[in-house]
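Anyone able to model this chain together with copper (II) ion?
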Amino acid sequence: MSAVIHESDLNSEAHHHGPPTGFKRWLYSTNHKDIGTMYLIFALVMLFLGGAMAMLIRAELYMPGLQIVNPDLYNNLVTDHALIMVFGLVMPAAAGMANWMIPMMIGAPDMALPRMNNMSFWLLPAAAILLVSSLLVQFIPGTGTPVNTGWTLYPPLSVQVGLGMDLLIFSVHLLGISSIMASINIVTTILNMRAPGMTMMKMPLFVWAWFFTGLLLIIIMPVLAGGVTMLLFDRHFGTSFFDAAGGGDPVLFQHLFWFFGHPEVYVLLLPSIGVLGMVIPTFSRKPLFGYKPLVYFMGFLFALGLIVWAHHQYTIGMSLGATTYFMIGTILISIPVGLMIFNFIFTMWRGSMTFETPMLFAIAIILMFSFAGVTGVMLAVVPADLQYHDTYFVVAHFHYALIPGAVFGLYAGVFYWLPKWTGHMYDEKLGKIFFWWTTLSFNLTFFPQHFSGLAGMPRRIIDYNIQYIEFNQISSIGAFLFGLSHLLFLYIIIKTVKGGEKAPAKPWDGAQIGTPGLEWTLPSPPPFHSFTTPPEVK
Ligand code: CU
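re: yes, here you go
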């Protein structure tokens, strides 16, 4: 057959030998786009579940005194809100984008390991059921204390709490298996499935971002899995890894947890940095400024991220040498991150910019994430952190890092790629309303928490002194508005999926001349044949 691929070949259903239909299409799917779609839908469901928990938390904190939940349930909600947002929303949404876009960006017909891809996804609903069960089981009498540890699961408390903790540990096991398999798949795909001519240094930045993300996950997830398994052994099998009375050390768990936990922040951030690397050149109509340095900065971030974990535990009483090392290492991270931000700004510099929804999010991310970087340097400084530790200042810091840095990056990606995924344009006016609504209400929610934190309000406590009332009421009103804005997000997505204006091949009028329909794969124009090509087309 001729090597020329006709559009009709790509779209013709007649060539297929009865692929599974109905629910089997999804349950048995080995197709990267279908699996990507399932990841994205799962993330959307988890967004509303984790968001509902946040609404309960903010409603409880609207005023001092106990109103809505009891302290144990409150602590359990804090725990599950974090775990759901990290493992249920951000990682699956980023994996959905990876599944959809990476094969197309590097010219591969599908992921390298399609059947494992199916299993990676389908472990997630099972893990989510276990996670929700760990919350619900407290309403059954005789199951012990609810999971009131926070997402860090520190012993000795996590050894003492009831059945919910076992369900949570098994949930973390499944989440770990799922993300290790997904990461092996993504890294393998990037290393082995690139089309001829698509060298590593030509890959779009989003692919590089996921390459480092995948490597990070392969390194850190087994450590978390080991940590919670040791916890399980301490709980049921008479070991005392974390029990000082038996010769163990509870601080060991903190090291295991944060060896995972700090790089995990970059697992959440890097895919969104990759999205910025696609969105900003497109809407600036200029190639990415400093593509190779950006790749190297991500490499630095990957390497430094693995060796700074104990900045989360300055208060355990480490040696002066250790605290100094972790402080200097942590502050060094601001160098590659700051340089990345300058590269994105220089990409926009004198560009022919337009401000559609993805670009608005990209610019807002640069501003707000830089702010999180500044509070991050404050927290890295040991004597200062001894004051800020376990206050709302930390809560404000990491929500500024993770909501703009990770979640808004995913929104930018969703609006950028929705035309590609659905074939329809989203409603730009509604997209812009969503952007302003969500950005303003986000700041209203979390900006005051810097002040209540600096004034000494402790985190993870259901009640507070009356001097913090104003800050908390502003925060709660902001949170309700922020939560509400996501109903508009849902409406925009449903409206786009159901119909609307047909998306042209180049909806953003990107600047990549001679690459029709390929502007989604900016900034490095891949060879023409990097369309997804069904294997039967030869
Ligand atoms: Cu950290």
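The pocket of copper (II) ion is lined by residues 262, 265, 311-312 (CB under 6 Å).
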